[in-house]
Amino acid sequence: MTEVNLGINSFRDLKVWQNGLIIAHEIYLLTKKLPREEVFGLSSQMRRAAVSVPSNIAEGRSRGSRKDFSQFLHIAIGSLSELETQLLLLEMIYPEIKVGDIMKMINEEQKMLAGLLRSMKNPVSPKTQIPASP
Length: 134
Prior knowledge:
Layout: H1 15-32, H2 42-63, H3 66-93, H4 100-121
Helix pairs in contact: 1-2, 1-4, 2-3, 3-4
């Protein structure tokens, strides 16, 4: 098995994880403003998708292998797409709720995740080298 060594000690050191956590926090704040009827509907779905992003980054990083980390990063990207769709629907149903700022954050997170995946496929610096296990 190969280990993931990105020059970090913990998933908490990853900027992409930190941003994912901020997105999840923003979604929680946003969904608190929704009508009570959405508690078990869109609100719940959005919270689950948002929490999935940093959670999958953390779990993938903690697994230790490039293959596992990559798989969990793909899941995080899928969760961001899910969240993006839910935000677009939210804006259609509740036009008074503006989601532009959070959509920008999601777009940036998608780019960061895609970049991280690319860097894992083509390591170019010592920070992204993946040493073989003994």
